Structures are given as C-alpha cells and as structure tokens.
Amino acid sequence: MSFYGLVDGTEASLKKYLGSLSGVDQVGADARAAMLATRSIKTTSKRWAIDTAITMVDLTTLEGADTPGKVKALCTKAVRPDPTDSTVPSVGAVCVYNDMVEIARTHLDLIGGQHVGVAAVSTAFPSGRASMAVKIQDTKDAVDVGASEIDMVIDRGAFLSGRYIEVFDEIVKIREVCGTKAHLKVIFETGELVTYDNVRKASFLAMAAGADFIKTSTGKVAPAATAPVVLVMLEAVRDFYAMTQVRIGVKPAGGIRNTKDAIKQLVLVNETAGPEWLKPSLFRIGASALLNDLLMQRMKMDDGYYASPQYVTID
C-alpha cells in the first residue's frame, strides 16, 4: 500500500522506489546550510518572524516527573503565552506523553484553547522498541482521548539494517489508526541515521507511507535538529510535492532554544521548500525553552531592552 501510488506495498517496489532517489551532496548541504545561517530578517519583519515562530511551537514536556499540574500550566501558557499581552498568538500544539493527553485536551477546552492541538508521542517513544501490537494500542489510546497529532518514532534498527518494508508497514499501520482524527508526524532520530542519504531515504519512505509531517528527532539524542539535516528534509518535502502535488510538513526538534535559532529555521524553510511552508500546518518546532526567549525578544521590541526571565512564566 502507498498513500500516493508510489509503491505497491511490496519490498521489491519499495526498494526500487528508494533506489531511484538521488544522493545527497554532503559538502554542498553543509555549505548551503552554513550560508543560509548568515541570512538575517529585516528589523521591520522581525515581529512577524517572532509571532510566526510562536504559532509554530509544539510546546513540549516529556519528562518522567511530569504531573497533571505541570501539564495544565503548560496548556495555559500555550493558549496565552503572555498573559499581559493579548496580541501574542497561541502556539501550534502541546506535546505530551500518552497518559497526559486527556488532561491536556480537557484543560485546553476548558480555557478556550480548542484551536490548540494536543500531540502525543507514541509507538514506544523514544526508543521505538516494542511490538507492533503495543505500538498500535499506544497510538489508539492517545487518539481515543483527544490527541489530534501523533508523533511516532521509527524502528531505527530495522531501517539501518535495510529492513525498509518493516518500517514502511509500521508507518502505514499507525497512519490507519490515526484515521481522520489525528495527523501523523514520523520521527527519524536523525542523530542515529548517521548520513544525509539515510535522512533523505527515510523522508521519502515516511511520506510514501502516509506521514503528514516528518520530524528530525525525539530531543533525547544528540545531534538533533542540525541545520543541514533540516535542509535535507525540506528539500525532500519540496521534491515530494513536485512528484505528487502533496505538501508534507517538517518538524525539527532538539537544540532550538532561542529566537536566533528559530529565525534561522524560518530562513531555511523559505529558501528551501518555499514560503508556502511558512505556516504551522506545514512547519513546527519542537521545543520547551524556545517560547520564553521568543517572548522576551518580543518584549524587547516594545520596550527597547531584553527582559529578565522573571517576566515570563517558567515552563
């Protein structure tokens, strides 16, 4: 099965499809990412860039010590990042573990945050080491209690061993569980994929299997969302669109901590995939600390000085 008719679901057709992909010029990718990192956004556009980045944040807490109170506080911040300024937009989604999905969804609805999604990390996050039955149930549990987005992790061991059909079938099955209720983000853990060629191959495999988004990493393994890796993934969604006329989203996660990092991501998107991807339905940033810096930079534009962290709520 393929969502776009690119493969027929057999191992032979999948290998032929992946084998037809062009390789990645590593030196060229590194050089282009470095060049784009020097680009800046005009001062007159900085407010737009900051607000756009805020709408793209998946405000995340994925700690063993997470509590219902912490998740509720995060949801409140997601809807109204700055309680003193109603012009600050809401974030794209709140990202939590499965057992916190219902708490997050209920609290968001209670405080007028129906427009903010709940993303659940699924399929034995972050390792991906579990049976298919467990992964399916994990996903079903999250969708049933209100997750509108599922962030699944691929089996990197299967991928690196060349068992591509196993990875493909797993994504297809999880996509079927999501149905029309939830978008599917597929996490590669690019720090473990080693090469840019593998990142490109994983990107096309996931998109053909039905991913709505491709995501760099869990945030638990370094390196995570490096600029060249994000560049390779953005080129993949651009090329996939040229083939299918379907736009797939990209989500970098891990290591994007300040406004400068976020703006570099927006430049990468605009210059690689195109301005059509500059919206939260096609680009997200998985982060926890980033939002506070965006808020402090926004305050600086209004007041002329960089506010102390005490002026924003602790995540």
UniProtKB/TrEMBL annotation:
Reactions catalysed according to its record: 2-deoxy-D-ribose 5-phosphate = D-glyceraldehyde 3-phosphate + acetaldehyde
Pathway(s) where this gene product acts: Carbohydrate degradation; 2-deoxy-D-ribose 1-phosphate degradation; D-glyceraldehyde 3-phosphate and acetaldehyde from 2-deoxy-alpha-D-ribose 1-phosphate: step 2/2
Name of the featured protein: Deoxyribose-phosphate aldolase
Gene Ontology MF terms in the entry: deoxyribose-phosphate aldolase activity
Keywords: Lyase, Schiff base
Enzyme Commission number(s): 4.1.2.4
Record PANTHER family: DEOXYRIBOSE-PHOSPHATE ALDOLASE
Gene Ontology terms: cellular component: cytoplasm
Top-level taxon of origin: Bacteria
